[in-house]
# Entry
Amino acid sequence: MKSPRFLALLLVVAGALHAATPEENLAALGLALPPTSAPVANYVPAVRTGNLLFLAGNIGRDADGKVIAGKVGAELTVAQGAEAAKRTALSLIANLKAELGDLRRVKRIVRVGGFVNSAPGFTQQPAVMNGASDLLVTVFGDAGRHARTSVGVSELPLNAAVEADLVAEIVD
# Structure
């Protein structure tokens, strides 16, 4: 099986030759966007100010819609945490699509804030969040390269393994 980084590089190179859309890149990966969720409290899923779109935190769900839960470094391995981060990024992309209608309106992913439900002593949060970052670069090419924070936390809503938020620069 090819590594996510190899697939990301392959799609970036192919995208440079063919200028694939984000949706075409998702299809090439065999990924479908999950349904978006309504907010569960007094907040909105996205706020636009100028040409920046701020997305609220999202958690990763598996293909059946079940929350990917557990502490990374205890119940989950780094690889399982990275998969949870990838699924979280897929949820963020779904929210971008819901807000913008067309993912080609994303000029750049500016920043990702990553929160990893970590077992005591676990320090590999950046390796976990690479699952999200790699997917964003694979889908958006160079426009997916972003600043990032990877923070370990003791608990997340619904015992989710990963939660992330995102800031994107958009075009009209």
The mean pLDDT is 92. The longest helix spans residues 78-100. The two ends are 39 Å apart (CA to CA).
